[in-house]
Design brief:
Elements: H1 13-31, H2 37-40, H3 52-62, H4 68-77, E1 82-85, E2 88-91, E3 94-95
Length: about 100
């Protein structure tokens, strides 16, 4: 099921729980010494950039992320308004 993108006015406890699960998956991998591109590069701004070149770079880097599956599950169920998630560029809650 695909849901509406989150807005600040409608925090959804299920979305928050899903986001927490993703954050835990990322933190566990970082703790295990794995490389998470959007965190480990020190270039996380590319994941929230409006520049198409940055977005393409980020989307490609996601493909080698060990948390890709968890990230893909999250963004598929809980669209975000913007940013690069699991290799997808989100714009107003839709994949661009
Ligand atoms: S798949 Fe991409 S956005 Fe998701 S955690 Fe990995 S690097 Fe970050």
């Amino acid at each position: 099921m695909t849901r509406k993108p989150q807005t600040r006015r409608d925090p959804d406890p299920e979305r928050t729980a899903a986001a927490n699960r993703l954050q835990t998956a990322i933190a566990d991998r970082l703790e295990g010494g794995e490389f998470i591109p959007c965190v480990s590069y020190g270039a996380g701004d590319m994941w929230i950039s409006d520049d198409p070149d940055d977005q393409r770079f980020a989307a490609r880097a996601c493909l080698v992320c060990p948390a890709f599956t968890e990230c893909w599950r999250y963004i598929t169920a809980w669209p975000e308004l913007a940013g690069v998630w699991a290799g997808r560029v989100m714009t107003e809650g839709a994949v661009r």
